[in-house]
Design brief:
The protein is α/β, with parallel strands linked by helices. The chain has a single domain, classed as TIM Barrel, CATH 3.20.20.70. 45% of the residues lie in helices and 12% in strands. Strand 6, helix 7 (184-193) and strand 7 form a beta-alpha-beta unit. The radius of gyration is 19 Å and the shape is globular. It starts with 23 loop residues before the first strand and ends with a helix.
C-alpha cells in the first residue's frame, strides 16, 4: 500500500509502514475532573502508561467520549498528547454526520504530529453503498495520514458495505479497517473480498479466533485498564499455533473479563475500574453517561486481580521459553 507522503510514518520498500508493526491500539478514555473539565494530569499518566506498554493510542473514539466533547476540547486533547512526544503512534478518531465539519476536523489535525485516523461510518443517516463510498472517499482525500475505516453497526446503525471497501481499498490513504460487528462470518467476508486492506478486531475477547481468519491486531477497550496484560494477550494470539493455543485456553478468562467491562455502556465500567486502580482521579463521564449506572464493582475488581495474575504467569512462561531456546541454541 502506497500511502501519501508523511514525515510521521516510516515506509519500507514493500509498501508496508511502521503502523503495520503496531498490533494493539488502545481506544483511550478521556479522564474528567469532578467539575467536568478534562483531567490533563490523568490523561498524561495514562498516555505514558500505554506508550510504555508498547501500545498505540487512539484518541476521541467512542471509548474516549469524543462526541460529548466540544471541538475545542477535542483539539486540546490531541495537541496535548502530541506534545508529550511519546514513542508510540497516535490515531485520531473522525466521527459524526456532518461531512464538511469532519473534513474541517481532518484539515486541523493534519497540522499536528499524529500518525493516522479512524474514520467512522456517518451516524444515524444509514447511507447505502454509494453514500458511504462518497463519505469515506472525501475523508480519505482530505487526510494526510493513513486511515483505518471503522465498521461498528451497533453504534452507527449500519455496516460498511463490502462493495464500499472494495472500491476504497486501493486508495493511497486506505490502510486498514477496525471490524467490530462481533460476527466472524462478516469478518471473513471482508477478508475474502477486500484482501488489500489490513483488518483489526474491535472485539477484545474474539481475537484468538480472528487471528487465524487474518486479523492483524486489536483496537482495544480493556487495554485501558490492563495495558501490559492486553499487550501480552495480543502477542500470544499473534504468535504461532502453539502459543495461540495458550491464548485460546485463556479465552474464558478474557471473555468473562471483557464481558464485565461491558456490563453497562462503555466506557462506564472501565473508567470505574481505572479510578479504583488510581490510574485516573475520577470516574466522571459526560452526560448522558454516568458511573451511577454501575451499582456494584465487585466483579470488576475480581477480574482485575485475575488478569494481573494471568499476566504474571504468561510473562514467566515467555521468559522460560526464551531461556530454553537459548539453551538449545
Amino acid at each position: 500500500m502506497n500511502f501519501k507522503s508523511s514525515s510521521n510514518v516510516t515506509y519500507q520498500n514493500d509498501g508496508t509502514s511502521d503502523l503495520d508493526v503496531c498490533h494493539l491500539w488502545t481506544a483511550l478514555v478521556t479522564p474528567f475532573l469532578e467539575n467536568d473539565h478534562i483531567d490533563f494530569d490523568s490523561l498524561k499518566n495514562i498516555a505514558i502508561a500505554q506508550a510504555q506498554a508498547g501500545n498505540g493510542i487512539l484518541l476521541l473514539g467512542s471509548t474516549g467520549e469524543g462526541l460529548a466533547l466540544t471541538n475545542e476540547e477535542q483539539f486540546s486533547i490531541v495537541e496535548f498528547v502530541c506534545a508529550l512526544q511519546l514513542n508510540t503512534p497516535i490515531m485520531v478518531a473522525v466521527g459524526g454526520y456532518n461531512l464538511p465539519e469532519q473534513i474541517s476536523w481532518i484539515a486541523s489535525c493534519n497540522k499536528l504530529n499524529i500518525h493516522c485516523y479512524l474514520l467512522g461510518t456517518p451516524l444515524y443517516a444509514k447511507p447505502g453503498v454509494v453514500g458511504q463510498t462518497q463519505w469515506f472517499k472525501a475523508l480519505l482525500d482530505e487526510a494526510k495520514f493513513p486511515c483505518m475505516l471503522y465498521n461498528v453497526p451497533s453504534r452507527s446503525g449500519i455496516e460498511i458495505p463490502i462493495a464500499t471497501v472494495q472500491s476504497l481499498q486501493e486508495h493511497p490513504n486506505c490502510w486498514s479497517m477496525k471490524e467490530a460487528s462481533g460476527d466472524v462470518n462478516k469478518f471473513l467476508n471482508y477478508r475474502k473480498y477486500c484482501p488489500n486492506i489490513s483488518l483489526f478486531s474491535g472485539e477484545d475477547a474474539m481475537l484468538p479466533y480472528l487471528v487465524p481468519a487474518g486479523a492483524k491486531g486489536l483496537v482495544s477497550v480493556c487495554a485501558n485498564a490492563w495495558p501490559k496484560a492486553t499487550n501480552k494477550y495480543v502477542e500470544l494470539c499473534l504468535q504461532g499455533s502453539s502459543i495461540s493455543e495458550q491464548a485460546v485456553n485463556n479465552f474464558p478468562l478474557w471473555n468473562d473479563a471483557v464481558e464485565a467491562l461491558f456490563c453497562v455502556a462503555n466506557p462506564i465500567p472501565v473508567k470505574v475500574l481505572m479510578q479504583q486502580q488510581e490510574a485516573i482521579s475520577t470516574s466522571v463521564l459526560r452526560a448522558p453517561l454516568t458511573h451511577l449506572e454501575l451499582t456494584d464493582n465487585t466483579e470488576l475488581l475480581a477480574f482485575n486481580e485475575q488478569i494481573n495474575q494471568w499476566l504474571a504467569q504468561a510473562s514467566q512462561s515467555s521468559f522460560l521459553n526464551t531461556e530454553n531456546n537459548r539453551n538449545i541454541a
